[in-house]
């Protein structure tokens, strides 16, 4: 194996292993708080021998020269108009092809499904793990002859088996509505179209995982569905970060993150791989 | 820290905070300790903020050091507790045993000594240059080169029976 290939594989493995990790909420404020305490303690240690306890306490209480401006309050967030936010979300969505879109959800009993989707090829690699079980499957979707065609490769790491099959949907009917449904399957192009056509508008501003976030809600005729889905984009990158679906439990919450593409990650997402020694078995009829 | 600097610091945490946690996790394999190490690193960055032209390299170095400190501290504490209880010293913790379900490559990485693992993570995942990696680790460029070479050799050795792709056109793993 060449060094560059090994390096690429290391990169892909680490990206996968750390994909769902986030900095804890309030990390900046906590850093400031700890730094204040540490400065106060260091200030006391430095000043006590020279100037006595009282002087030391005075300096610590007022911040002193060692802690300039630590009492400054964080500034109010800048005001962003809806048009500004929409234009930035659309710009972020236009760049989706440069990323692998990672969504993750838990079934509430320790089983986590993480899906890696390449928006360019339409291939998704899903990894289901937890409760002592792990499977991975790749689904490549193409449309031809008026039908969806799926190529599926399924690897069961617990039983050390795998299978592959091709299948297709029935003839796709003509769409009866242009309505875009917000869900985990909503593509960046669909979301962009929903924003451009006014089907979706800017809703609440809040926080997701401690980061500023903006909610997208249905507008116009679709607003009756507004309570059905909460779709959040990050307040700074404007990329989707979370989708809350009914019945709004942990199992119906989908977290999303976009990982910049590397050649290794693209290959890992698009090329099914079966570990050596795994046994081929008949395809599951229940799949697709 | 002035309001403007605080805004810049918050922005820094927002943009790089996740990556710092991920870096620490790649080094120690424990989510809780990765979050603690990243938090400690951010505290150190905050304390030096006004003197840092480019805070990211300093933040990386702080994460690497804080993660290593966390390992050493935990190891010493456990040894003391076991000695106090009259038990023999525990064998070194194998990270791969704690990470029950992960790719072989990640497990192979976990077998590397801390310094080699840090070099691999910074050079090949964060894609730092040899000079930047040396700065982040407080080592010389020569040490980084030799550690990278040794680490890649060990990884290659552990991955001899690697993945076999379904696509027969891909022969690189054969």
Q: Enumerate the spans of chain B where pLDDT stays under 50 for 5 or more consecutive residues.
A: 88-102, 161-174
Examine the coordinates and then state which fold CATH places here, giving the name of the CATH topology of the largest domain in chain B.
Rna Polymerase Sigma Factor, Chain: A
Order of helices and strands of chain A: HHHEEEEEEHEEEEEHEE
Based on DSSP secondary structure assignment, what is the total number of beta strands of chain B? 1
As a percent range, the share of helical residues of chain B equals: over 70%
Structural class of chain B: mainly alpha
Q: What is CATH's topology name of the largest domain in chain A?
A: outer membrane lipoprotein receptor (LolB), chain A
Order of helices and strands of chain B: HHHHHHHHE
Task: Tell me the number of structural domains of chain B.
Answer: 2
How many helices of chain A? The count is 5
Characterize the largest beta sheet of chain A: strand count, sense, and whether it forms a barrel: 12 strands, mixed
| Basic shape of chain B | globular
* Strand order, largest beta sheet of chain A: 7-8-9-10-11-1-2-3-4-5-6-13
Structural class of chain A: alpha+beta
CATH architecture of the largest domain in chain A: Clam
Word description of this protein:
The complex is a heterodimer of chains A (about 290) and B (about 170). Chain A is α+β, with helices and mostly antiparallel strands. Chain A has five helices and 13 strands. In chain A, helix 1 crosses helix 5 (about 265-270) and helix 3 (about 80-95) runs antiparallel to helix 4 (about 190-195). The longest helix of chain A has about 35 residues, at about 25-60. Chain A starts with a helix and ends in an 8-residue tail after the last strand. Residues about 50-75 of chain A have low confidence and may be disordered. Chain B is an all-alpha fold. Chain B is globular and about 55 Å long. The longest helix of chain B is centred in the middle third of the chain and has 30 residues, at about 55-85. Chain B has helices at about 5-30, 30-50, 55-85, 95-100, 105-110, 115-125, 130-135, 140-160; one strand at about 165. Chain B has two domains: about 1-90, Rna Polymerase Sigma Factor, Chain: A (Orthogonal Bundle), CATH 1.10.1740; about 95-160, Winged helix-like DNA-binding domain superfamily/Winged helix DNA-binding domain (Arc Repressor Mutant, subunit A), CATH 1.10.10.
């Amino acid at each position: 194996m060449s060094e560059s290939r090994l390096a690429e594989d290391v990169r892909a493995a680490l990206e996968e292993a750390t994909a769902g990790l986030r900095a804890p909420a309030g990390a900046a404020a906590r850093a400031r708080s700890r730094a204040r305490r540490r400065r106060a303690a260091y200030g006391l240690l430095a000043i006590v021998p020279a100037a006595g306890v009282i002087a030391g306490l005075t300096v610590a209480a007022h911040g002193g020269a060692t802690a300039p401006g630590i009492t400054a309050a964080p500034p109010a967030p800048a005001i962003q108009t809806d048009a500004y936010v929409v234009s930035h979300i659309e710009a972020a969505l236009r760049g989706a092809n440069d990323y692998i879109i990672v969504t993750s959800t838990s079934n509430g009993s320790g089983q986590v499904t993480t899906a890696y989707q390449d928006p360019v090829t339409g291939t998704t690699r899903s990894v289901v793990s937890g409760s002592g079980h792990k499977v991975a499957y790749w689904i490549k979707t193409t449309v031809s002859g008026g039908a969806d065609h799926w190529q599926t490769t399924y690897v069961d790491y617990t039983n050390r088996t795998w299978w592959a099959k091709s299948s297709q949907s029935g003839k796709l009917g003509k769409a009866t509505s242009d309505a875009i449904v917000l869900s985990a399957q909503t593509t960046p192009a669909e979301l962009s179209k929903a924003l451009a056509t006014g089907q979706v508008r800017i809703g609440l501003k809040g926080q997701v995982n401690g980061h500023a976030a903006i909610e997208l809600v249905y507008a116009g005729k679709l607003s009756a569905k507004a309570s059905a889905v909460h779709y959040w984009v990050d307040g700074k990158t404007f990329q989707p970060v979370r989708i809350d679906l009914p019945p709004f439990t942990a199992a119906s919450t989908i977290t999303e993150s976009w990982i910049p593409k590397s050649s290794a990650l693209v290959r890992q997402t698009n090329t099914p791989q079966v570990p050596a020694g795994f046994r081929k078995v008949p395809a599951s009829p229940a799949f697709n | 820290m002035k309001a403007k600097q605080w805004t810049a610091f918050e922005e820094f945490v927002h943009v790089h905070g996740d990556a710092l946690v991920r870096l620490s996790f790649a080094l120690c394999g424990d989510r809780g300790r990765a979050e603690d190490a990243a938090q400690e690193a951010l505290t150190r960055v905050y304390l030096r903020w006004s003197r840092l032209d480019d805070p990211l390299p300093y933040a990386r170095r702080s994460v690497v050091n804080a993660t290593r400190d966390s390992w050493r501290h935990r190891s010493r504490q456990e040894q003391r507790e076991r000695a106090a209880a009259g038990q023999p010293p525990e064998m070194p913790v194998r990270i791969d045993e704690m990470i029950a379900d992960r790719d072989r490559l990640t497990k192979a990485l976990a077998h590397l000594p801390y310094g080699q693992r840090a070099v691999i993570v910074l050079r090949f995942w964060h894609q730092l240059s040899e000079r930047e990696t040396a700065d982040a680790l407080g080592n010389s460029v020569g040490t980084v080169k030799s550690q990278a070479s040794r680490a890649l050799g060990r990884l290659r050795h552990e991955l001899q029976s690697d993945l076999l792709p379904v696509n027969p056109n891909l022969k690189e793993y054969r």
